[in-house]
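Cross-check.
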Amino acid sequence: MSILSRKKPQRAADAVLEALCIAIFDGELAEGDPLPPERVLAAAHGVSRIIARQAVHALADAGLVEVRQGGASRVLDVAAADARALEFLFRYGSRLRTGGARLREDLFEYRLLYVLMMLDAAHRKGTDEERRGLLALVEECPVQPSEARARQLDSNFWRHVGSMGRNQIMRMEMALWERWADPGAPLDGKPEELRWFCHVLAKQLLARQDPLPFYLATIRPTFEPAHR
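Predicted model, tokenized:
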């Protein structure tokens, strides 16, 4: 997608914001490159220059671009951006192309390690009632679930785990993940495999057995060099 291609936005500035984010994360706009002028962005996306400026300043707030008065705004080093840039990755990560492959993989790895922290917090802080509730939630799901049912289980399972951990920061981040999750993204494995995975974790949490060794042993193949 060209940074000047037009797409119907959810909000007025979203088309410009999406195009610029993807161009930056994909490397089409590299560190030091100037952004297209606001008038060009505005014309390409059918918005006013004020709206185009709002999108550029949103990127500046996240440390992705530097706005220069009287000169062209320029792209900054993506690796030096602050945590606010993560929301843009959550929103647009699934749409990155070859240039953003490394960022997509980093985002995938980050999600898996984030779940590791959620499980640890749930293991340490969850009540017996919550542990029983988690197992019941899984066992309500058929052993051979449909893809839709597996997606529902996946969402409900991790929401319950997040609640067990009683860490408000983790729950905020999970809400951000859910807000920008791509409903068309493929499942991590077959539906029956996802149900089995959740079932083992739920049983280990109920037995107050540390779930991290099983979780790590299951996900580590995805960190092999071939994946990178």
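Strands lie at 65-66, 74-75. The chain has a mean pLDDT of 89. Passed to J.P. for a second look.
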